[in-house]
Amino acid sequence: MKKNTTFLTLLIEPTLIHVSWSIDKTLWGKINRSAPPEGPDLRLYAQVGEGTSWTGDGGLKVHGQENRWHLYPPRGATGRKIRVGLYYMDKSGKQHELALSEEMDLPPDLEIMESAMGSGTARELFRLSGAAQRGTPDTGGNLSS
Amino acid sequence: MTDRQSSPAARIVLVLHAHLPYVRLEGSRLPLQELWLHQNLFECYLPMLKATGEMIRGGSRFALTLSFSPTLISMLDDPYYQERFLDYLETMLQLSESPSLKKRPDLRIPLAHYREGIVSIRDYYLSLGGDLIGELKKQAGSAGVGLITTAATHALLPAFRFNEKLVCLQIDRGFDIFEKAMGFRPRGFWLPEMGYYTGLDRLLAGSGVEYSFLDTHGAYGAGHPPTNSIFAPSRSPAGVRFFFRDVVLSDAIWSKHGGYPGDYGYREFHADTVYTLSEEELSAAGTVRIPLGLKLHRITGGDREKEPYDPRVGMEAAERHAADFLHRIIRRAGEVSALTGDAPVFTLPFDMELFGHWWHEGVHFLVTLMDLIARSEQAIMVRPDSIAEDTRSVFSPAESSWGRGGYFGTWLSPECLGYYGKIGALHDRLERTGSRGHEARAALHEIMLAQASDWSFFMTWETFRDYGRERIEEHMSSAETIITGIEQGKSDAGFIEERRRRYPRFSAFPPPCGS
């Protein structure tokens, strides 16, 4: 992570990732001078990847020295360990990393997981557990207010 | 407590998590935010401790795991609050004797019940000398009560995953504050909001956490599930044992639609008779029209006017629900053990404040449930540290939280999201100063207080939204002032002292990481 840059990624649904960032102002000024602006602002790219393998579409176009976004991970990424990267592209078209998240486990599609369990005990236990209910009861956080 | 001679059908791990944000508003009498503690002391913490104390003395067989957050411990240990709590009780007693209420024969029974409650709790509190921490320590020496800790200011740890030091700060200071107050280091750790992110188990293990708790889907979301599903603890790759919330059983209590606390015979939480009193009556008690919590009506149901509360009906409903809950447990145990061949472990974690505060009859429900279990051959209560290890069961814990949706959404309003990164940036600035002195410690305390999940909860749910925002900004701004002073070599000792006076008990605890 670059100095004075923060990058937070959190799951908010099994297939929806919240991403927020704040890029060091000095660095932001520097890359704005070295990269071609697209519209009023420098274009950034938020990309979901697995290990060193990144989606081939160049990622989602985002912008802002400080901003937040929601990303849908690519199809097939559920149940895998992924990272989110934030990049910009210089004048020659080369990608530069601004921030890279820690690894996160994307929950598997529980229906697929259940069917992959076959018809044995594991599947019955999974069914009994209630994990597939997904929307857990509204337990709130701090109740005392 | 260890397993009984005959094999029970179900092993029940009941965990009550008690937490309130650190609030201290010196200078005003009974401010709204301090009522959270007064009301929970009166309705939840003290009745629960009184009940468990009686059970211990009576030789009852039970096992309860209690998590008292460090911020709550700090307030319970503070003479400032001890005096104010007694003032709150006296005020409520006086209000309950207001002339307009005495003219209401329909309120005679609920008023008598209310006053008996105040007198009983006041006497109990005075018998403890106001020392709840001492009583907790005493009870923790019994087989029935186990204590665990949680993050220092109850930070939603996944929100700070981008900065391991901020996460470790919360975990380690949580242990320190607990240990200083209770005199021993607990083995278990409650994850605030049951929030887990990939890799957190490594930090927990590094801080000495032996066991913790995850929501149900935390068992399944990361690939390798536990051998016995959620019905037995399982070890993470870093070696932390996790117990899994049983969402199906919990639903009997939590569910908004059909959960026990919604029974029409129970006392209504939201109907506060303080709002019917005259200005003169309020003034005579030295207070104003705020939700002080004079509750005299039952839920009633439908659009009808709320009817007076009948404690006999409410307590009977709690007993009926406790019996029904045990019946559900035993039935479910039969279903699970038919598959696993073993007595399942049902982990039932709850916010403690649900019992007594939000659900008036909740303490009676729990006491009845524990009594029924003690007399049952088919169920037993156990503490997490007494369950034998199944070394075969290793799993990958998944990103999860409790709350709506199960993935942090309860604490992620657009407004509060921006704060997490800013708190991280302040911590980075402090780190770069290299300072380890008392100024750095003061800045870290402000950073930790800003991290509390309560503020983002308030902002996300628009309950005390302004207060949540004000508290985050107050602590961030104070941290920034102190850090700027360190950077410029011109620390403002007066400012630091003023902040210490404002939140004294919390800032009196041991120095932070690296100092």
Describe the structure in brief.
Chain A has 3 helices and 10 strands; from the N terminus they run E-E-H-E-E-E-E-E-E-E-E-H-H. Chain A has helices at about 25-35, 110-115, 120-130, and strands at about 5-15, 15-20, 35-40, 40-50, 55, 60-65, 65-70, 80-90, 95-100, 105.
Outline the structure in words.
The complex is a heterodimer of chains A (145) and B (515). Chain A has 145 residues and is an alpha+beta fold. Helices cover 18% and strands 39% of the residues of chain A. In chain A, strands 3, 4, 5, 6, 8, 9 and 10 form a seven-stranded antiparallel sheet that branches. The radius of gyration of chain A is 19 Å and the shape is elongated. The two termini of chain A are 37 Å apart. With 515 residues, chain B is of the alpha/beta class. In chain B, the strands form two sheets. In chain B, strands 1, 2, 3, 4, 8 and 9 form a six-stranded parallel sheet that branches. Chain B has a three-stranded mixed sheet with strand order 5-7-6, with no helix packed on it. In chain B, helix 1 runs parallel beside helix 6 (132-140), helix 14 runs antiparallel to helix 16 and helix 15 (453-461) crosses helix 16. Chain B is globular, with a radius of gyration of 23 Å.
Q: Can you tell me the residue ranges of chain B where pLDDT is under 50 for at least 5 consecutive residues?
A: 1-5
How would the global form of chain B be characterised? globular
Low confidence ranges of chain A: 135-145
Overall mean pLDDT of chain A: 79
The main pleated sheet of chain B reads as: 6 strands, parallel
Oligomerization: heterodimer
Give the N-terminus to C-terminus distance of chain B in angstroms.
Answer: 39 Å
Helix segment count of chain B? Answer: 18
* Greatest interface: A-B, 51 and 78 residues
Amino- and carboxy-terminal Cα gap of chain A: 37 Å
The secondary-structure element order of chain A is: EEHEEEEEEEEHH
Helix content of chain B: 40-55%
